[in-house]
Amino acid sequence: xxxxxxxxxxxxxxxxxxxxxxDTDHEVLIGSRDPEKARTKAEEYETxxxxxxxxxxxxxxxxxxxxxxxxxxxxxxPPYHVGDTVEAVADGLDDDTVLISPAVxxxxxxxxxxxxxxxxxxxxxxAAEAAPEGxxxxxxxxxxxxxxxxxxxxxxxxxxxxxxDDEDAKDIVRLLADGIEGLRPLDAGGLANAPxxxxxxxxxxxxxxxxxxxxxxxxxxx
Length: 222
Hints:
222 residues; alpha/beta; Rossmann fold; six-stranded parallel sheet; two-stranded antiparallel ribbon; 9 helices; 10 strands; 21% strand; globular
């Protein structure tokens, strides 16, 4: 499968790109508003993989071109850019393209981080409302530590929660997530449940900030 990571030059997008290129045979495309930045990052990821004996091709494009070539598109952009990014690449999306939203709205005060619930109810819902008719959106990869993902020496041993109303699309994302060693996908229901999933992220950040040796915190359901 061909996976495009829009915003794949950032922390979470980069971590997912490295993991998929390292652990699977999926073709990984890096997207950015700046195609040169995307190509530079793709080369950096290839260099990292080559140092580990992994011969993987990672390509960089502007966001629209990456989305146009992909079967699954990960919106690894800040939450306030999700809607605009979907609209910018909409013309290149096929009916069977799956959009994946990992973004979470957060705000910070003196007490820590808090979930910043958007007017639509969740960032995943923003992506769904911006998507063309017939394009399925699945929320996933919300609660993952970017540093832990990017460190290929780190064992994951964590879960990611999937939310979506299209069961076939959720099955595709489940397979993509399951391909990453140590990452277990769990079904958390429909898109209406996205706020509960997204709200876990600031909780994890606060626990990581306030406890020693928990910088790369994740969740595991037993």
